[in-house]
Design goal:
6-stranded mixed sheet, 9 strands, globular
Length: about 180
C-alpha cells in the first residue's frame, strides 16, 4: 500500500496544472451567473452525480442565490459498452420528477455516455426539462453524440488524464483545488 501512496503523491507533485484554483473559481462564478439567469425562477431540482460531481456541486451551489432542491444520484455504465442506455444504478433518483426542471451536475464531460443516459432516464421519469452542468469539457471528438456539450460548461480542457475538482487519480486527489493532468498522460 505504501508504494501506491507514494505513486499517488508523486503523481500530484509531477502533474501539469491545466487550470489553477483562481481559474476554477472564475469559471464557477461565470457558470453560477449563467445558471442563475436561466433557472432562478424555475424551482429546479439539482442532482449531483457521485462521486465526481460532489466537489463541483459543493463549490457551485453556494453561488446560486435562489431556492432549489438538492439531491444526488450514482450511476455508472455497464462495462465499456458503446451505448450509454444501460446504467448500473448505485443510487437512483427518488424525488418525483414529473413537471420539474432538473439540473444535473457532474465533474467532467469526457465521452458523455453516462451523462446522456442519466439525462434520458430523468426525462423518461417525467422531468419537464433536464439541463446539465459540468466543470470540465474535455476537448476531443469521441463524444457520445457529435458536438455534444453540457448546457453549462466551466472550462474546456485538453484530452489528458485529469484529476482535481472532483476528478480522481486512482481514487485520490478529487480534493485538489485546481485541474491537473498526470505527467505524460
Amino acid at each position: 500500500m505504501s508504494t501506491d501512496l507514494e505513486k499517488i503523491r508523486r503523481a500530484r507533485e509531477e502533474a501539469d496544472c491545466l487550470a489553477d484554483e483562481q481559474q476554477v473559481e472564475a469559471a464557477l462564478d461565470r457558470m453560477a451567473g449563467e445558471i442563475s439567469a436561466r433557472l432562478a425562477n424555475r424551482n429546479p431540482l439539482v442532482y449531483a452525480v457521485m462521486n465526481g460531481g460532489l466537489i463541483f456541486a459543493g463549490r457551485l451551489l453556494p453561488r446560486l442565490p435562489f431556492p432549489l432542491e438538492i439531491a444526488y444520484l450514482h450511476a455508472t455504465r455497464y462495462g465499456h459498452a458503446l451505448q450509454g442506455k444501460q446504467l448500473d444504478w448505485r443510487v437512483r433518483p427518488t424525488q418525483d420528477l414529473r413537471g420539474r426542471t432538473v439540473l444535473v451536475l457532474d465533474d467532467i464531460l469526457d465521452e458523455g455516455h453516462t451523462l446522456a443516459a442519466i439525462i434520458e432516464h430523468l426525462q423518461a421519469e417525467g422531468a419537464a426539462e433536464v439541463l446539465s452542468a459540468v466543470l470540465v469539457h474535455k476537448l476531443h471528438e469521441r463524444k457520445a453524440r457529435p458536438g455534444m456539450r453540457a448546457d453549462f460548461s466551466g472550462l474546456d480542457i485538453p484530452d489528458r488524464f485529469l484529476f482535481g475538482c472532483g476528478m480522481d487519480y486512482m481514487g485520490y486527489w478529487r480534493n485538489a483545488p485546481g485541474i491537473y493532468a498526470v505527467k505524460g498522460l
